[in-house]
Design brief:
Layout: E1 10-14, H1 19-30, E2 34-39, H2 42-54, E3 58-63, H3 69-83, E4 88-91, H4 106-132, E5 137-142, H5 155-175, E6 180-187, H6 202-209, H7 220-231, E7 242-245, H8 260-269
Parallel strand pairs: 1-2, 1-4, 2-3, 4-5, 5-6, 6-7
Helix pairs in contact: 1-2, 1-7, 3-4, 4-5
Length: 276
């Protein structure tokens, strides 16, 4: 890939303060894009923007709650005012919470759906309108292998990520005539703050890695590489797809020494405050 494949482009990354979002923002900037780092965690986003600038890139911060339409509108308006355009968007913000169908609190369901699914929908509306008025663009949303399979302990997360995959395909269909491509990435277990207390703990990540053919969890940079490609002109004939970056987790039954008990254990880990 070209070292400056995103030169001259303006990019926006939600959930950009940590994990996959941080890795994507840094990679897009390293490849020439000017980046809006958007996150509800303003201090974390400022740290990422500082990292980008210290590496010779251009970035600014936007504090945003993606579940609120005014925040999405303001995020795009600020990007246009700062950089004069918007070409690329990674709608990545997401949360996970432990719950059950029969005994779960409705507030958990509402919160996860609001951030993970409504947040992507509102993001698409805001960035899509800006891209239409400027002749096109590319959008990638972070779904999950949980958007392709089922499991226990996180019904709101599974439902939201299935919804993201469907939304991406609907958006790709609607926006193709406007020269906007829309795709989804579906990570397996990635060692990011969404793992809560398990993040960066070798004993836990090693156990979680056993559910992948490659026998390890993924790293944020490995997802960012796929996001960067899908956003780039090198993926000019790619739209409406959901692409796994999961170490083979969904490829075969062989990958899983995965049991309902494992699902429940992972779900409880994901019940922490972390995000993608």
């Amino acid at each position: 890939m070209s070292e400056k494949m995103h030169a001259g482009r303006v990019a926006l990354v939600t959930g950009g303060a940590s994990g996959i979002g941080r890795a994507t923002a840094r990679l897009l900037a390293a490849r020439g894009a000017r980046v809006c780092v958007a996150d509800v965690d303003r201090a974390g986003a400022e740290s990422v923007a500082k990292e980008i600038e210290e590496s010779g890139g251009e970035a600014f911060v936007c504090a945003v709650d993606v579940s609120r339409e005014p925040d999405n509108t303001a995020m795009v308006e600020q990007t246009l005012a700062r950089f004069g355009g918007l070409h690329l968007a990674h709608l990545n913000a997401g949360i996970a919470r432990y719950s059950t169908i029969l005994g779960g609190d409705m507030s958990v369901w509402n919160q996860v759906i609001a951030v993970n699914l409504t947040g992507v929908y509102l993001g698409m509306r805001a960035v899509g309108a800006a891209m239409v008025s400027r002749g096109g663009g590319s959008i990638v949303a972070t779904a999950s292998v949980a958007g392709l399979t089922g499991g226990s302990g996180m019904p709101s997360y599974y439902a939201s990520k299935h919804g993201v995959v469907g939304l991406v395909r609907a958006a790709a269909t609607e926006l193709a005539p406007q020269k906007i491509r829309v795709n989804a990435v579906c990570p397996g277990v990635i060692d990011t703050p969404i793992l809560g207390p398990g993040h960066g703990v070798p004993e836990i990540t090693q156990r979680l890695g056993e559910g992948h053919l490659l026998r390890r969890v993924g790293q944020p940079d490995e997802v960012a590489q796929l996001v960067s490609f899908l956003l780039s002109d090198q993926a000019s004939f790619v739209t409406g797809g959901a692409y796994t970056v999961d170490g083979g987790m969904t490829a075969t039954f062989e990958s899983g020494a995965r049991t309902p008990e494992d699902d429940a254990r992972l779900a409880q880990l994901l019940g922490g405050p972390g995000s993608r």
